[in-house]
Design a protein that fits this description.
Oligomer: single chain
Largest sheet: 5 strands, parallel
Helix content: 40-55%
Number of helices: 10
Radius of gyration: 17 Å
């Protein structure tokens, strides 16, 4: 069973998500929270696999609550998906930087929501190609001269190459075509890179690729 927690200050939003998720045979809703403090307490108590977290909430907003989750080693297995009203929400960049595995607009199609929950549990980042490229453009605009990352020394040359392609917004299929390998091989390289760098998911690899200097703004096309 995939255990899901809901954090949103709108009761109707939570009720709609709960009804959809609870109807699935492989998903269990383990609790709800109306603000960020309640969300943190709920996650610490129930240890869900996924938290659907609204960005804008009273008392403690979703970004601060997300940092509280991703910064706690005891909650390392918990994935956070941010909920936003608009796809171009100004806080999307900060949400990914805070450790969220991705984000969803609240009026997303039901099938997409279910796919998203299952995807992040599998270790995938919930970022469409268009969103990924906007995220990368934002990193490019904000980037400063990166400090060398000692952790990259643990990567093989091929893993560095794969990480750079992830950082440039390529999917596993696109990486496979670029490197002339199978999609499974590309996925394996991505997974090994995440393990070596202790990255929570693919979204964090994008962050690390820029912070380490492995990908530079001038490479964007």
């Amino acid at each position: 069973m995939i255990r899901v927690a809901l954090a949103d200050d709108q009761l109707l939003v939570r009720a709609g998500f709960r009804a959809l998720l609870a109807a699935q045979p492989d998903i269990e809703v383990v609790g709800e929270a109306a603000d960020g403090e309640q969300a943190l307490a709920l996650v610490r108590e129930r240890r869900p696999d996924v938290v659907l977290m609204d960005i804008r909430m009273p008392v403690l907003d979703g970004l601060a609550a997300t940092r509280g989750i991703t910064g706690d080693p005891a909650l390392g297995e918990v994935k956070v998906v941010m909920l936003t009203t608009f796809e171009l929400d100004e806080y999307v960049f900060e949400a990914i930087r805070s450790g969220a595995s991705g984000f969803l607009v609240k009026d997303t199609e039901p099938d997409e929501l279910l796919r998203a929950v299952r995807a992040v549990v599998g270790g995938d980042a919930l970022l469409s190609p268009g969103v990924t490229r906007r995220l990368i453009a934002e990193f490019a605009a904000r980037s400063r001269e990166p400090a060398p990352a000692a952790a990259l020394a643990e990567l093989t040359e091929r893993e560095r190459e794969v990480m750079a392609l992830v950082g440039m917004g390529l999917s596993n299929q696109e990486i496979a075509r670029r490197l002339v390998v199978s999609p499974l091989t590309a996925k394996t390289h991505v997974s090994r890179t995440m393990v070596k760098l202790d990255a929570r998911d693919r979204a964090q690899l994008v962050v690390l690729a820029y912070e380490s200097g492995l990908v530079r703004p001038g490479w964007l096309g």
